[in-house]
Amino acid sequence: MKKITINDIEIAYERQGKGSPLVLLHGYPLDHHLWDAIVPLLKDTFDLIIPDLRGFGESTTVDTPYTMYDFASDIAGLLDQLGVQKTAVAGHSMGGYVALAFARLYAERVSALALVSSQVLADPPDRKHGRYKSAAEVAEKGISGVVDTMTPKFTSNPEWQAFARQNMEAQQPAAYIGGLKAMAERVDATTLLPAIKYPFVVIHGDADMLIPIERAREVKAALPESHLFEIKGVGHMPMCEAPDETAQALIRLN
User: Fold this and answer.
1) Does residue 173 sit within a domain?
2) Taking a C-beta distance cutoff of 8 angstroms, is the pair 88, 111 a contact?
3) Is residue 46 part of a domain?
4) What is the DSSP-derived secondary structure letter of residue 112?
5) What is the pLDDT of residue 156?
6) Domain for residue 132, yes or no?
7) Which positions of the chain have pLDDT values less than 50?
């Protein structure tokens, strides 16, 4: 991976393919390897920019709290250094929250947007409290409890459960803590939707146990011009569980 210093941290990224730019943002608590199965299906259509979000994978982070807007600023800085002015952005789960923050801060830089197993709503109070509780538990006991809890919720497929566990176990506690707190404090992005005039794709498995399919349907109802792809029998990682269908949906961003 290549690394660039942005906002006093190192952002690691891969760049593959040719065509119009597409940034792929992984979810929590994973890294860029989440997209490995789908990259070969997209690299003939897109110039793929695949970063590790701050704290995850090979990217570094800071000890002070940060927000989805800080994640988005990292991506803007990466694009600046790569000479990319405008791009499509696809975000998975927490990466979707980053994509929405990027679209809010840098609307003129977005050519198209995709939410994969994500949502536009902010956390309700009980969920927000739960994230802070999980962050405190990680600080005290490490990441094993979160890994054990989340692994079966990603997918019912044993192969991809093993992948998710391995990827989660490779992450640092600081990434878990920072990501949890940033997700807890994210703003509701529903009001952003009416202003979106570029292609907008929503991809969601109907067996998602972490973010229910209803969240995707709500986005489609709020933005009728968007393209909703419901993938039958698929959980929280459609790019792994159904790479062909997910790739065909993302090609709509071109």
Assistant:
1) no
2) yes
3) yes
4) E
5) 94
6) no
7) none
Instruction: Indicate the Cα dihedral angle 228, 27, 31, 55, nearest 10°.
Output: 150
**Calpha distance 237→114 (Å, rounded):** 14
Total domains in the fold of the chain: 1
What is the Cα–Cα distance from 150 to 210, expressed in whole angstroms?
9
Is residue 8 within 8 Å of residue 216, measured between CB atoms? no
**How many C-beta atoms surround the C-beta of residue 237 within 10 A?**
28
In one-letter notation, the amino acid at residue 107 is A
With residue 126 as reference, give the H or E element that holds it: helix 125-141
Q: Identify whether 103 is part of a domain.
A: yes
* CA 78 remoteness from chain centre: 16
Instruction: Give residue 161's region: left, alpha or beta (phi > 0; psi -120 to 50).
Output: alpha
Please give the C-alpha separations between residue 215 and each of 119, 126, 241, in angstroms, as whole numbers.
6, 18, 20
DSSP 107: G
Cross-strand pairs, 9: 6
Phi, psi at residue 105, to the nearest 5°? -80, -35
Predicted confidence at residue 2, as pLDDT, reads 97
Work out the number of other CB atoms within 10 angstroms of the CB of residue 224. Answer: 7
Q: How many residues does the structure list for the chain?
A: 254
Alpha carbon 54 to chain centroid distance? 12
| Tokens 């090609």, located at residue | 251
| 4 touches 81 (CB < 8 A) | yes
| Domain coverage including residue 98 | 2-122+187-253
Q: What is the CATH number of the domain that holds 84?
A: 3.40.50.1820
Residue 27 is encoded by which pair of tokens? 């979810």
Tell me, what's the pLDDT at 38? Answer: 97
What distance in Å separates the CA atoms of residue 208 and residue 153, rounded to the nearest whole number?
Answer: 8
